[in-house]
């Protein structure tokens, strides 16, 4: 009985040696498998590492107490409702806040009473951006400030639904009052900084500036009948070789856009994260991943890729990457400060306004998940139940 519980020293030594040999054999096999991969990695020294520096916090904060001195209006196509809304907005600003300059993009349909504004290094300083339209209008407003900080964005819906549309146009007077009195809160929505490189590890593009992306950057095979072969690096370390229709790197804001349609996770916009989502991958075990905002994701078109990769950022076609070329994606130091809908709800109004909570409470996202996505809704909707015979 004693021998069955406590084994002799020689038996324990033999078992220990055999286990060590087995582990060594597995390690050598794994190492040989990895070292035999024919892969040309971009030098780690040349991969941008600015994301390692201090990044902005993405929780809600108060707007500066200083009242805006200049407002930029960004709107979608000037349909009749948009024209009437802009006219009413301009009249209210000029009457209630005299001395505030109102700008508009340099377009043929610039409204009367607004000054022309052109983006660029010598552009007039803007303290507040007001958008009228859908989510695409806010993405366009973000692209106007692609090289630096974005002013606070006050977005109004023109009847469309979207995750970035906190206010209805009928509430513009109350929303402006909240901004000018310093009661508004903002949510800094993360952007991506995308830098493109050619085969010689030199930056592509004449200006050399990073592209700022609010939703996502997508690499796709476009019209090619062949799948893309893309090598993925995280902080210079090879993650995998992806054979798929493409890849998406999105922000938490973009997690409810293209990435969600491709099977990606829903991420709260106050988190600092990068979402990597494959588009129709050949391998069924290739699942979406979420990385911290301090990571640098490198997407390199493989030398064996049978087709180049088209690049679209926030729905805009920008580049075509050929085999050997790559793009670095990292968190931008310039987020988009979006004014929360809950900013205009007074502390005692929760009983009257079922849509909001008190100022400073981040309830917009939870409400949008339920109202827009019908999160966890049953298959039998209320409309069907009303017409049911049972």
UniProtKB/TrEMBL annotation:
Biological processes per GO annotation: NAD+ metabolic process; NADP+ biosynthetic process
Residue ranges with Basic and acidic residues bias: 350-363
Single annotated GO MF: ATP binding
Region of interest (Disordered), residue spans: 343-363
InterPro entries hit by this protein: ATP-NAD_kinase_N (IPR017438), ATP-NAD_kinase_PpnK-typ_C (IPR017437), NAD/diacylglycerol_kinase_sf (IPR016064), NADK (IPR002504)
Key words of the record: ATP-binding, Kinase, NAD, NADP, Nucleotide-binding, Transferase
Gene3D superfamilies reported in the protein's UniProt record: Probable inorganic polyphosphate/atp-NAD kinase, domain 1, Probable inorganic polyphosphate/atp-NAD kinase, domain 2
Highest rank taxon of the organism: Eukaryota
Family note: Belongs to the NAD kinase family.
PANTHER family (UniProt xref): NAD KINASE, NADH KINASE POS5, MITOCHONDRIAL
Protein name: ATP-NAD kinase
Natural source organism: Leucocoprinus leucothites
Lineage: Eukaryota, Fungi, Dikarya, Basidiomycota, Agaricomycotina
